[in-house]
Amino acid sequence: MRIVLRATVRSVLVGYLIVLLLIPIAAIYVKGFSLGWTPFWNEVTGPLAWKSIVLTVKLSIVSTLIQAIIGTLIAFVLVRYHFRGRSLLNSMVDLPFSLPTSVAGLMFLTLLGPASPLGKWLEGIGVKLLYNQTAIVIGLVFVTFPFVVRAVQPLLEQLDPGEEQASATLGASKFYTFFRIVFPAILPGIVAGSMLAFSRSMAEFGAISLISGNLPGKTMVASVYIYGETQNYNPEGAAAISLVLLTLSLLILWFVHIVTRGKGRLA
Questions:
Q1: How far is CA 243 from the centre of its chain?
Q2: Residue of 244, 131, 147, 236 whose CA lies nearest to 191
Q3: Residue 226 in contact with residue 242, Cβ under 8 Å?
Q4: Mean pLDDT calculated for residue range 86-90
Q5: Mean pLDDT calculated for residue range 31-54
Q6: Cβ atoms within 10 Å, residue 58
Q7: Following DSSP, what letter does each residue of 26-44 receive, concatenated?
């Protein structure tokens, strides 16, 4: 009876994964190549499509590098320092996960728009943070904010403080101790969190569609281009670009799995 129950539960879970993940993924690949390799390649390498892919990858890399640095510092502060408001700050880290990204885009429009006090002041000193690539980076940093922080925090909490104390006792500076003891221990978390942030950045639509301006060839990212193709009754073109992003995301997730499977050790 127990064997039958286990087999039933396993079958239900496998079937659920097949229906929820594998079939939709397979559908994208089938649709993307439905017209053959040449039309697929022409769609992907079209001037606007290719520029949107390159722009998406480039700005995703920029936002990921920012997250790798800022996220690690924030995780270090949240774990190692105790101050008033720490628990509130810790809970606020997950806000981008629960907030609809379109709302995040509207927040930035309200905060940085030309009608706001801050927007007027920035415009007065010649700084424009909306409807350009800077706006895209700001939006991507916001929506991917929790990934590195939440990936690094558990590794810092598990790190034996005795190792750092021993290093300090031997006369090592805090800078040396961090890069020889702390950094190697949290590196898998930094890499995994950064890769997830990169993958998430490539897929962002809601916030970016509101604050980027969506200028073809200049500020139009791949997700917005895909939406435009569906509105222009070109599902094959939309599927082709989606297939590129999907493949990159799958490769990134595979890499994260390789990095983190060795019990949090890299190298």
A1: 18
A2: 147
A3: yes
A4: 88
A5: 87
A6: 14
A7: HHHHHHHTTT-HHHHHHHH
164 vs 45, residue with greater confidence:
45
Residues 6+ apart with CB under 8 A from 121: none
DSSP state of 20: I
pTM for this model (two decimals): 0.85
Q: Which two tokens stand for residue 20?
A: 């929820």
Average pLDDT over every residue of 137-155: 93
Helix orientation angle between 133-143 and 145-158, rounded to the nearest 10 degrees: 40
Question: Are the beta carbons of 206 and 224 closer than 8 angstroms?
Answer: no
pLDDT value of residue 198: 93
Distance CA 67, CA 50 (A): 26
Q: Check if the beta carbon of residue 147 is closer than 8 Å to that of residue 196.
A: yes
Number of other CB atoms surrounding residue 141 within 10 Å: 19
Mean pLDDT for the stretch of residues 212-238? 90
The burial class, CB within 10 Å (0-12 / 13-18 / 19+), for 189 is buried
Give yes or no for residue 104 having a pLDDT over 60.
Answer: yes
Which ranges in the chain belong to alpha helices (H)?
Answer: 2-17, 23-32, 37-44, 47-80, 86-92, 95-98, 101-112, 117-124, 133-143, 145-158, 161-169, 174-177, 183-203, 206-211, 222-231, 235-260
Asked whether the predicted pLDDT for residue 267 surpasses 60, the reply is no
Segment holding 249, helix H or strand E: helix 235-260
Specify the DSSP element, H or E, that contains 160: none
Kindly state the tokens that stand for 100.
């609809």
Sequence-ordered list of residues with C-beta below 8 angstroms from that of 187, at least 6 positions apart, any chain:
266
pLDDT of residue 262: 55
The tokens describing 182, both together, are 């702390």
Query: For residues 74 and 181, what is the distance between their CA atoms, to the nearest angstrom?
Result: 18
- Enter the DSSP assignment of 262: T
